[in-house]
Amino acid sequence: MEGRPATGARLRAQRAYAAASPWNADRLQETATGYLFVLPVLAVYAVFTVGPAVWAAILSFQDYNLIGGFRGWVGAGNYVRMLRDPVFVKALLNTVYYVLGVVPTQTFIALVMAVVLNMELRGRSVFRTLYYLPSVTSSVVISLLFLQILSEQGLLNAALRALGFHPPNWLQNTALALPSIMAVNVWTTVGTMMILYLAALQNIPTELYEAAEIDGASPWQQLWHVTVPQLRNATFFVVTNGIIGCFQVFDQMFIMTDGNGGPLNSTMTLMLYIYKNAFGGYNAMGYAAAISFALFAMILVIVIVQRRLFREEAA
Amino acid sequence: MRRGVSWSMPSRSRRAMGAVLLAGLMTALAACGGSPASSSKSGSTAPGASGAQEQTTVTLTLSGWSSSPAELKIVQDQIAAFEKLHPDIKVQWQPVPGDYMQKIQTEIASHTEPDVFYLDSSVAYDLMSQGAIQPLDPYVAKYKTDLSRFVPNLLKAFQYQGKTYGFPKGFSTLALVYNTRLFQQAGIGQPPKSWAELEADARQLTRNGVEGLVMDPDFARLGALVEQAGGTLVDSQGKAQLDSPSAIEAAAFYQKLVREGVLKQSKDVGAQWAGDALAKGKAAMVFEGNWVVAALRQESPDLRWSVAPLPQGKQAGSLAFTVAYVMGKDTKHPEAAYQLIDFLTGPQGEKFTEQGGLEMPSVESMLSTFSQDYPEQKAFAEAASYALPWQLGPNGQTVIDAVNKALQSIYLQGADPKQALQQAQASIHQ
Question: Which of A11, A285, B325, B407 gives 20 to 30 Å between its CA and that of B192?
C-alpha cells in the first residue's frame, strides 16, 4: 500500500521520458519484457480459445461433420436451420426458462443467507462451510446423488410416501423434470454466490450503518437502503455469472435425464443440443458451431444490456 | 454392457460413470496429447525397408469397448490366437472407456483412428455412406472369403450400395424373458405366443406391485412389434420408415397395453432398464436380448426366469443387435487389418465368442452349438433367421431420438400413435 504512490510517480516519470524518445532502448526492452511475461498465457489462450473459436466460426458456415469431414459451404444455412428446427426452439425456451427460474432464486437465497450468516450467530462458520460444500463438490457427483434421490423409488419419494402423499416420478415427468434440475442447481450454486455476498458485506463501512441508525432507520430499512445498494457490484457479478453459467448448463441434464433431453425434450438445453449435434451422434458439427455462436451472441447481448442497466442505476 | 450404444442396457449409471471417466480423461488427455496413438503408428512403420528384413513386424491397433472382465477375456484370447497364427502381426487392444463413438469419430476426423475397430449397426450407415471406413470387397476377392458364413441379416447391416464394409463379430436378438415363478403363481402354463395372449397374460400377471410387462418407449424394443405387425424399420432404399401402417399398429398396441395399466416403463417402477425391473421382481415379462442373462445372474442369482420367442403378430418378429469389425480409412496396413477382421469373425475367432456365451456367434453354422452350450438362450438363437438388424438408415441417432420422442409422447401423454409417428417421420426429412 505504501509503495503505491512512489511506484506510480516512477512510472509516470518513465513514461514521460519514453514519450520523448519513442525508440529508446529502455522502453523497447520494457515492452519486450512485458510481452515475454504474458506470452505463455497469450499462447495458451490463442491455441485453446481464440483458434478454436475462429475455426468454429468458419465451421458454422459449412456442412461439416466429424466422420465425413467437409461436405460443402452452406452460407447462412446452419443459422436459418435453427429457426425451423423445433428441437432447437424447445432447447432455447427451456434454457431461457431455466435462466429465469434459477438466477433470481439463487441470487435472492444467497443474499438472505449471506446477510444472516454475517450476523453474530453461534456456529456461523459451521453453517458457512455447510452451505458452501455443494459448490465445491463436482456437479457430476451431485447429479448422480440427486438422480438417486429424485428417482421413482428414491429417497424423496419414500419420504413423501411416508407422509401420505402420492409423489410423481420427478425426472420422468415433462412438467417437473426441468424444475427438479433447476432446484438441484440452485442448491448447488447458492453457496458460491453466498460467499461472494459475504465478502462484499464485510466491505461495507460500519459508519454507514451507524449513520443510518442515528437517522432512525430500522434494521429493515438499513438492509434495503444501505446493504442492498452497497452490494451492487457483487450483485452484478453474481447475476452475470449466474446467467452465463445457466445458459451453459449441461452436466446436470446429461446425467440426470439420460443425455437425451429427458422426457419429450423437456430437459433439452442449448448446450446439450450443441453436444448432441457435435459429438452425440447427430453428425452435424457445422450446425453445432452455428448454435454455439447463437448462444454466444445471446449471452453477449444480455451481459451488455445488463451492464448498461447497472451503470444507469449507479449514475 | 455396451458403451455408448443406445440399444443394449440403457443404464444411466453407466452413462454417468462414463461422464466421470471423461472428466478425468479430459485432464489426462490435455496433458499427454495424442502421443500413444502416434507412437504406435510410427512404431509400426519403422522397419519399412522393403524386403531387407524377412520378419517385418506390423503393429495393428484394435479398439472397442469392454464392459466386463469376461468380455475382455474373449477379445484377449482371440488376439492371442491370431498372433500365434500370424507371428508377423502384433495387435494392440485399445479399449475405449466412456462414450465410444464420440472418441472414434474425433479420431476419424483427425486421421488417428485405430486400424480395426468395433462399429454398431445403428450408426454404420453414416460411416459407410460418408467414406469414413474402407470397403472390404477387394480383400474379400483376394482372400476368397466366403461371406455366406454369416447370418444373412447381420451382414446386410454393414453393406452399402453393393459394398461390404464390416464383418459382424456377434449379435444378440430380442426374446421374451419372463419370471417363471410369477407365471406359476398366476396359473399360466405357457409363455404367450400371440399379441392377444401377451395382452391377456400381462393383465393376469399385473398384481401385487408387479407389472405384467415392462417395456420402455424405445424403438429398440418396439421395432420388434413393427416387424410382427408385418412391417420393416427401413424402406427399400434403406431409409427410416417410422409411420408405416405396421409401425402405427405396433405403437397403438403398445398404447393399448399402457392404457390397460399392464405395461409400464422401467423408470416408473423404480428400475434402470427393463432387465433391472425383471431382476428386482417388478416385472413379469420383458423384451430383452442375450445381455440380460449375465445381468440377471449377477443382480438376482435366485430369480427363476426363462426365455421364449417373442409373441407373434401377423408374423414372427425380433430385432438383431450387432457390432462389426471395420477397417479405418487411414490404416497403413490394410492387408494385415483385413486378416485380423477375417480371423476374428471367422470360425476360429467366433469360437471364443460362442464359448463366451455373452453374445451369439455371427457364423451361422455355429448357432446350433451355441444353443447346445447355452440351452437357456436357445430362444434368442431361434430369432436369428427373422430378426431385423437394428439400423435406421442415414443419421441413425437422429432418427432413433425422433422416434423415441414420439413413443414417449404416446406413453406419457397419450398422444395419437399415427400423428406422433407422422410428426417424427416429417422431422427427420427436414
Answer: B407
Smallest CA–CA distance from A69 into chain B, residue: B109
Which residue spans of chain A are classified as CATH 1.10.3720.10? 80-314
Tell me the pLDDT of chain A (315 aa) as tens digits.
Answer: 444 555 666 777 666 665 656 567 788 888 899 999 999 999 999 999 999 999 999 999 999 999 888 999 999 999 999 999 999 999 999 999 999 999 999 999 999 999 999 988 888 889 889 999 998 899 899 999 999 999 888 899 999 999 999 999 999 899 999 999 999 999 999 999 999 999 999 999 999 999 999 999 898 899 899 999 999 989 999 999 999 999 999 999 999 988 888 889 999 999 999 999 998 888 899 999 999 999 999 999 999 998 888 877 665
Identify which of B108, B109, B123 has the shortest CB distance to residue A281.
Answer: B123
What CATH number does domain A80-314 carry, 3.30.450.40, 2.60.40.10, 1.10.3720.10, 3.40.640.10? Answer: 1.10.3720.10
Query: How crowded is residue A155: how many other Cβ atoms within 10 Å of its Cβ?
Result: 13
Mark yes or no for CB contact A140/B16 under 8 Å.
yes
Q: What is the DSSP string of B322-368?
A: EEEEEEBTT-S-HHHHHHHHHHHTSHHHHHHHHHH-SSB-SBGGGHH
C-alpha cell, B387 = 430378426
Residue of A nearest to B102 (CA): A279
Q: Scanning the structure block, which residue is given the C-alpha cell 480383400? A: B139
- Going from the N-terminus, what domains does chain B have, and what CATH number goes with each? 56-172+321-388 (3.40.190.10), 175-317+395-428 (3.40.190.10)
| CB–CB contact B130 A264 (8 Å) | no
Instruction: Say which of B108, B131, B268 has its CB closest to residue A169.
Output: B268
Q: How far away is chain A from the Cα of B270, in angstroms, using its nearest Cα?
A: 5
Q: Which residues 222-241 of A are in CB contact (within 8 Å) with B?
A: none
Beta carbons of A68 and A151 less than 8 angstroms apart? no
Q: Cell numbers of B397, please?
A: 441417432
Minimum CA–CA partner of A262 in chain B: B405
Q: Which residue in A66, A83, A88, A155 has the most chain B C-beta atoms within 10 A of its own C-beta, making it the best mutation to test that interface?
A: A66
Q: How far is A289 from A278, CA to CA, in rounded Å?
A: 8
